[in-house]
What we know:
It is built from 8 helices and 14 strands. Strands 1-4-2-3 form a 4-stranded mixed β-sheet, with helices on one face. It has a 4-stranded mixed β-sheet with strand order 5-8-6-7. A 4-stranded mixed β-sheet has the order 9-14-10-13. Helix content is 28%, strand content 26%. The mean pLDDT is 97. α4 (131-148) packs across α6. The chain has helices at 18-25, 51-67, 71-74, 131-148, 168-176, 186-205, 268-277, 319-335, and strands spanning 2-10, 34-41, 79-84, 93-101, 112-119, 156-163, 229-233, 241-248, 255-262, 289-296, 303-304, 307-308, 341-344, 355-362.
Amino acid sequence: MHHVDVIRIPSSSPGDISGLEALIACGQVAAHDIVAIMGKTEGNGCVNDYTREFATRMLAACLGRHLELAPEAVEKRVAFVMSGGTEGVLSPHHTVFARRPAQGAPLAGAKRLTLGIAFTRDFLPEEIGRRAQIEETAAAVRQAMRDAGIASTDDLHFVQVKCPLLTSAKIAAARARGCEPVTADTYESMGYSRGASALGIALATGEADLPELTDEAVLHDWRLSSGVASASAGIEVEHNVVIALGMSAQATSDLVIAHDVMADAIDAPAVRRTLQALGLHGDESRERIVNVFCKAEASPDGLVRGMRHTMLGDSDINSTRHARAVTGAVVASVVGHGMVYVSGGAEHQGPAGGGPVAVIARA
């Protein structure tokens, strides 16, 4: 079984690898133990956000030097998930996940943090946002759970996916083969990819059944969702990268994880409930928090608690940017700082307008 360490490090720019280099240099983390890195970069989080790709390439090159591997080879063994957009008080950072063989016997009667990773095959442009992506994602989630040693979906607390999007070149290539993509709007394709990925997670966890997960259900049937799903779309991948985070009685980490679901973008009580589930009460417990991970979106019905919002109709700023700023501020107000992972666009990730929230903390 596994022993998992999780370290959050600040980032001064999308290309900043100094924090990772320092972790390795001081021996706090061995390069060969790193299995995943999640990051928040200060791009716009939209189609043309190349800060995600730049950060991934720089981190992969850094690990490649230590592992004596090409960056491309590193990306096949390490799950990189860069989420663009640090609007408002959100602070750019990386969360490094290291995994090594279990240290001694697990603590009797106690469950500890574990994680697993998996990768789907590359998707054709016309498969993005459709049934093929749903089914492939579900298979990868199951694989990641096995890799983590998560025996039951009851012990699965957060599934992070990095998924592809459509570009004008991909759309043209599909049409040249006589295939029509799910949308011709590249920004809208991000939502379709996130939505299909989330429904794949729901299929793997049993929160949804395969017959109801049709192409037409994606971004339309809001009854369908997963309470542990987090999906981030980007130009830097052609496949889905999956990180499954959960608990196991066989793990020996000194970390634990819990999750809840925010009903809307300002649901601070859901964040507090997650902390309380881990025994974190009051400001004095904040130092035990390693990181908070959550989803945010502009409610698709145009309302937040019955009041009209204008995020969906803003032609200057994309709705995901508004949502990250709002939910980032809510989470920061609870935990006391803005260096938290808040990802925009929560299609089928929790209830419409809301989203899952998970906390990793020291036991």
